[in-house]
Amino acid sequence: MIQLIRGFKDVLPGEVELWQAIEKTAISVFDDFGFKEIRIPIIEKTELFSRSIGDNTDIVEKEMYTFSDRKGDLITLRPEATASVVRSYIQHKLYTSDPVQKFYTIGPMFRRERPQQGRYRQFYQINAEIFGIDSPLADVQLIFLLVTLFSRLAVPDVETHINSLGCPICRPGFKQALIDFLSKTKVKLCSDCIRRSKQNPLRVLDCKVPSCREAMAQTPSLLDFLCYECVRDFKILTDSLEHLNISFIIDKRLVRGLDYYTRATFEIQTGFLGAQSAVAGGGRYDGLVEALGGPDLPATGFAIGLDRLTEISDLQIDDYHKTPQIFIAALGQKSKGKAFEWVCSLNKTGIRAEMDFGEKSLKSQMKRANKLGASHVLIVGEKELTEGSAVLRDMMTKKQVFISTDAVIENVSRKLGALPL
Ligand code: AMP
């Protein structure tokens, strides 16, 4: 038997209803906050990701699904959405009518990471991006949106972690202090971090290997190196979060390894996910629009891990238990044909109707209606068709009434339309 590829998964009926409810809630929150949906392709030119995420990152170095297509062009299954949204914003000059744009997008991402609980090779993200706003209030709005969404989704125990990455003026001073610190502690770092400490030292800060975390506990903090503007913005960020009653933890290890990322960075964590504690992450990337060939416009955004969200949301879902409102038990060739027409018409009018497509006895059709949990059964045979009246049975009360076969749709709709859909 052909099995799933490792790290990929199916979302089955029974699970998918929670996914749908989360997506629906997210869309309604985005709507309330004035975000518009944007849909972007799943495959892009490899260069888009290597330039925006950066060559010296784990994603680009070892995790991308990259192929050459039939013409030999290098293409990649997207590992994240921001790069594509930025490309689209630039390519369609979406900034000309108004540089301020707020987008969201929901869909699958692909990274060839080591699969484990909470970490997949195809996973889903809910992304939001705000373009054209310099003020840290845009970052606050994103964090507030996340907190609002998690509360509407009954996600317990979320912690908001924040940090500032500084800007091209103040970060070099921190980078040097970090390099000095790393040269003293190198022996205790994992092999990846030894490599990172040369190519992209900031990334050593968020290594999850316990020995590296221990070695980095005493690392200098970027917050001590911030310039006047970055201090001012960080203060606006923290003050505004306090005003909104959002508690937060200042986490000096929260970083993004690239120069495009500036100032505010944040992560939502929860104790429920074990090692994979981050359920959402984001921050400001003021240099990226320009670096990808657009105008010098600021931007900020976040990505929520939808798979992880489904693992921690306490939302109560009963959609899976939606049962048929009516089951048509038909006997004989002619009645089957008529029953099929009725099922189609009832489905069209929004009534959950089912039938048996085989040649089963009335007894076994009633059994099936029971198993599906149908609230009513319409029984129709050749005799009923000729006489123009069929039996409608209420499966709860066991009461039966006759309804005219010439007006089944009208009668059933009138009777069942009042039932909760
Ligand atoms: P990132 O794009 O790496 O900042 O990730 C944003 C969010 O996506 C994380 O907080 C996770 O919730 C989720 N995520 C990232 N990688 C994976 C993965 N391999 N499997 C499942 N969720 C993931």
Summarize the helices and strands and which ones pair or pack.
Elements: H1 16-32, E1 36-37, E2 43-45, H2 46-53, H3 58-63, E3 65-68, E4 74-77, H4 82-91, E5 101-110, E6 122-131, H5 137-152, E7 158-164, H6 171-185, H7 191-199, H8 210-215, H9 228-243, E8 248-250, E9 262-270, E10 278-284, H10 288-291, E11 299-305, H11 306-312, E12 326-330, H12 333-348, E13 353-355, H13 362-372, E14 376-380, H14 382-387, E15 389-394, E16 400-404, H15 408-416
Parallel strand pairs: 1-5, 7-8, 12-13, 12-14
Antiparallel strand pairs: 2-4, 3-4, 5-6, 6-11, 7-9, 9-10, 10-11, 14-15, 15-16
Helix pairs in contact: 1-5, 5-9
The protein binds adenosine monophosphate.
Adenosine monophosphate (AMP) binds next to strand 6, strand 10, strand 11 and helix 11.
Task: Explain what this protein looks like in three dimensions.
The protein is 37% helix and 21% strand. The chain has 421 residues and is an alpha+beta fold. The protein folds into 2 domains: 247 residues, BirA Bifunctional Protein, domain 2 (2-Layer Sandwich); 93 residues, Rossmann fold, CATH 3.40.50.800. The structure holds adenosine monophosphate. Adenosine monophosphate (AMP) binds next to strand 6, strand 10, strand 11 and helix 11.
Helix content: 25-40%
Please count the beta strands (DSSP E, at least 2 residues each): 16
Taking pLDDT < 50 over at least 5 consecutive residues as the criterion, the unreliable ranges are none
Radius of gyration over C-alpha positions, nearest whole angstrom: 28 Å
Strand content: 15-25%
Strand order of the largest sheet: 1-5-6-11-10-9-7-8
- The CATH architecture term of the largest domain is 2-Layer Sandwich
CATH superfamily of the largest domain: Bira Bifunctional Protein, Domain 2
Gross morphology = elongated
Oligomer: single chain
Bound molecules: adenosine monophosphate
Q: What name is given to the CATH topology of the largest domain?
A: BirA Bifunctional Protein, domain 2
Distance between the termini: 39 Å
